[in-house]
Amino acid sequence: MAPLIVVQVVVDRPLAQGFDYLWDSERLGGSPEIGQLVEVPFGRSNVVGVVIKVGTHSDFDLEKLKSINGFAPLPPLDPAALRLINFASQYYIHALGETIIPTIPQMWKKPDSWKKIPQKLIAAQEKKKKKVQLDQGAGFIQEVDLNAEQKQALEKLRHCSSKKNEFTTMLLQGQTGSGKTAVFLNWLSAILDDASAQVLILVPEINLTPQLERRVRTYFPEKKMVVLHSGVSEKERGIAWHEAMTGKAQIILGTRLAALTPLPNLRAIVVDEEHDPSYKQQDGIRYSARDLAIWRAHDVKVPILLSSATPSLETWLAAKAGRYEHIRLDQRAQGAGLPKVHLINTRDPQNQFSPGDVSKPKGKSLITKTLANAISKNLEDKKQSLILINRRGYAPVLSCSACTWLSKCQQCSSYMVMHKAGALTKKSVLSCHHCGLAKPIPSHCPDCGNADLKTLGQGTQKIEDAIEEMWPRARVLRVDTDSSKSSKGAEELFQEIHQGKVDIVVGTQMIAKGHDYQNIGLVAVLDADARLFSQDFRAAERLFAQLVQVAGRAGRSGKDGQDSGDIYIETQYPESAVFQYLLGHDVDGFLSHITSERQEAGLPPFSYQALIHAEAKSLDKAIQLLSTLKAQLKSQGHISKGLRVYDPVPKAVMRVAGSERAQLLIESDSRKQLQEVLEAVDRGLRENSQGRISKAARVRWLIERDPSAI
Ligand SMILES: Nc1ncnc2c1ncn2[C@@H]1O[C@H](COP(=O)(O)OP(=O)(O)OP(=O)(O)O)[C@@H](O)[C@H]1O
Ligand SMILES: [Zn+2]
């Protein structure tokens, strides 16, 4: 009789342990391997899992063990990928199975189709061969064409990463438009000379990938490249992931979800726009893709390059302290200067239209006179304008002019946003951005019957209308998640801008990032103040980064001495530090300034944080669970020097879709101490829970390490 084989398998459930199964060699053929994807009976159904142990013993009765149903036609996940996922699971206090299974594309999690997959792959490969098209000329700067500063940066990158099998972290800090992308692509080029080498390029958001994708393809037409982000179809993602994990793809370009892809021959990592908050996963395991990428580079001993015009405070301080190599590009690549910053004080009557002002264009004046004049001038100069307002929809609230009625969401503690009819919705609606509830616009006030309902505040749609009225001959385009979901996708909207088919673009932060526009003469920011006074201590850092980034879209192609574009910011508080440092494009000055603020307050990166989230039918229950948890930590002696456990509080938006939410903040001076406490928290909560729901009070809980917003 063949010896008995016992394998331990983890599945996608919030359970700390793995489960033992028998491997029936005769029926299955082949032998089990760690990292193999298998199908197992679990409860009353069958689920996929990953083998984490292979042996001949079990602590359970062998007679009662069930057998593995089958295994996927895939090589096992390689040991480095398993180490990475193990680390993520421990560091973010998230069960191993629940960490590993979501990283595998759907296509590989359907055991029914495991037999058919190989044919699918071949068919897809054939089809793909035909449609590779290159966009010659688009940002293809060869090494010889780099300017002196870029060449120097490239030299330094090569020097710092010249030793084989050595981990280094490098920060490439360069002005917007300084040609960072051109530098890192040339850096990767030498690494890719080794035919088997794989490189991972992470970008923050989907709408950034098409442009960069074309650029990378143009640099490396011979290399196999795959793109991984949530906009890629399931089938394509399954194929791309397979090519990455089998070492067939050399270039893996993707968003945060690509950070956990198994890459057996990984030689270098680039994290573009490393400061971007979208590297943080906001549901399930709440990891930072940038932080995991750094751990991964360290683990497999390869260089990692973080690139940004506005590095995060964490990264910048590490570079200052010499833990990261600091490489800089201080000039714009095409010779232009940086755009001139204008702060428009909205309290100053001189900046406003006066009633009866003859210069006032027609329509509602939702913008200042100073800005309107600048836009008119920019139109005359045949340059494009970019107007940023970080709120989609028509207006954030609808109100009654006769009573106190406001368009509150019945399921959430927030207001319903008015959206005007458009390509996405046939009729105007009130829609809740938290729970998705949508309702027709009432014709009368539901409370008092008054027919005069007014909008409060403004979103992209209202500004778009106002701009169209003021400049009826200008071609206006709105770019936000609504407009990009309708008939045209984001990529098509951006193409229209690039091709000069648009004069004025109104959009949310979607338009602010990474895009390499060539003809923007003016950038305007309308609602910067809304983010100036936030309870989140990172708000100012984010706002500053975003303003530098959006300003960086202007005047990129201006040649020496030519106009380098303008950015106008409407604000009631021009004296705020954020704006004052922006005037001089002083990124380092601003980062020094917030360093001292954070240090004094003992906030990250001078301390480490975690949030315990709780959600229940009533706020009391959620708070109760967290209070009990806090008391437990105290009585078990966990609250010692250097550790601060705050009181539980309701979340900023307390009610969402009928659930009420609270959080508990834990802060420590040491990563290690925080790890220990969080492990204790996890054990404590698990003891009285089924999965992640407390048995008694039905409170759903979740631990979040290094929260990006508190
Ligand atoms: N050496 C060069 N000579 C001429 N043009 C260049 C050179 N290097 C880069 N460029 C061009 O300058 C523009 C900006 O370069 P790139 O996109 O690489 O900058 P970046 O620093 O990554 O920009 P950002 O951070 O603002 O997104 C691009 O259009 C690029 O083609
Ligand atoms: Zn709602």
From TrEMBL:
Positions with a binding annotation for Zn(2+) 1: C400, C403, C445, C448
Catalytic activity: ATP + H2O = ADP + phosphate + H(+); Couples ATP hydrolysis with the unwinding of duplex DNA by translocating in the 3'-5' direction
Cofactor detail note: Binds 2 zinc ions per subunit.
Swiss-Prot/TrEMBL cofactor(s): Zn(2+)
Keywords assigned by UniProt, alphabetized: ATP-binding, DNA replication, DNA-binding, Helicase, Hydrolase, Isomerase, Metal-binding, Nucleotide-binding, Primosome, Zinc
Keyword ATP-binding listed: yes
A GO molecular function held by the record: ATP hydrolysis activity
EC number: 5.6.2.4
Pfam families in alphabetical order: DEAD, Helicase_C, PriA_3primeBD, PriA_C
Domain Helicase C-terminal: 440-598
Binding site for Zn(2+) 2: C409, C412, C432, C435
BP GO annotations: DNA recombination; DNA replication initiation; DNA replication, synthesis of primer; double-strand break repair
Any one GO cellular component localisation term in the record: primosome complex
Cross-referenced InterPro entries: DEAD/DEAH_box_helicase_dom (IPR011545), Helicase_ATP-bd (IPR014001), Helicase_C-like (IPR001650), P-loop_NTPase (IPR027417), PriA (IPR005259), PriA_3primeBD (IPR041222), PriA_3primeBD_sf (IPR042115), PriA_C (IPR041236)
Domain Helicase ATP-binding: 161-329
Domain of life: Bacteria
Catalytic EC class: isomerase
Entry keyword annotation includes Ribonucleoprotein: no
NCBIfam families: priA
Sequence similarity: Belongs to the helicase family. PriA subfamily.
Binding partners and assembly: Component of the replication restart primosome.
Function comment: Initiates the restart of stalled replication forks, which reloads the replicative helicase on sites other than the origin of replication. Recognizes and binds to abandoned replication forks and remodels them to uncover a helicase loading site. Promotes assembly of the primosome at these replication forks.
Listed name of the protein: Replication restart protein PriA
Gene that specifies this protein: priA
